[in-house]
Design brief:
This protein is an all-alpha fold. It has 8 helices and no strands. Helices cover 51% and strands 0% of the residues. The structure holds fe (ii) ion.
């Protein structure tokens, strides 16, 4: 079989879907490569900061690494702004969706909400409420989200920080995103 038999999914057969599943499995093996490509594209993303979005991401991951965080948190830090290009109005959710099959509920939650928690550092200058995050004050992941933004996001715009290069993180990406997904739909 080179192609499925159907035009409408409703007419697909078991063989069709088994065939597609095999192709999808193969395709998913190159997910790490595509994530690396997306990270490289962050070199030419949002401007005006003292560092590129890629450097910001590397700084975030490097700080997590040097703080002895586990691989999951290092990968979350590295990818937390990967949605900036395609989801400028909901970048946190996009990054969280990419991470979701491979990380804990806690890490997923932190990344999904980091945009709101980051507002603490700038929203008051723009007529917004810097304490918007307080809507989650009683949530078990409130403090870990505060900590993530404090340690691995708001402080990662330093052009003089000695970030580890993307090359350093590539083997971790290659391994981490080939794990069996814990979530799928
Ligand atoms: Fe960030």
């Amino acid at each position: 079989m080179e192609q499925v038999s159907f035009i409408n999914m409703a007419d697909g057969t078991k063989e069709d879907y088994e065939f597609l599943e095999e192709l999808e499995k193969e395709f998913n093996k190159t997910l790490p490569d595509r994530l690396i490509e997306s990270l490289e594209k962050l070199e030419n993303s949002l401007s005006g900061y003292k560092v590129s979005r890629l450097e910001h991401s590397l700084q975030s991951a490097t700080r997590a690494y040097r703080n002895d965080e586990d691989e999951e948190m290092i990968m979350a830090a590295l990818l937390h702004d990967i949605g900036d290009d395609l989801a400028p109005y909901s970048h946190s959710e996009m990054a969280a969706a990419v991470l979701r099959p491979f990380v804990s509920e806690k890490t997923y939650w932190i990344i999904k909400h980091h945009g709101i928690f980051q507002m603490y550092y700038y929203a008051h200058h723009m007529g917004g409420d810097r304490n918007t995050r307080d809507m989650f004050k009683d949530h078990p992941y409130y403090q870990p989200s505060v900590d993530f933004c404090e340690r691995y996001d708001q402080n990662c715009f330093d052009p003089d920080y000695d970030s580890l290069p993307l090359e350093f993180f590539k083997p971790i990406i290659q391994k981490f995103f080939l794990q069996e997904p814990k979530f799928q739909h």
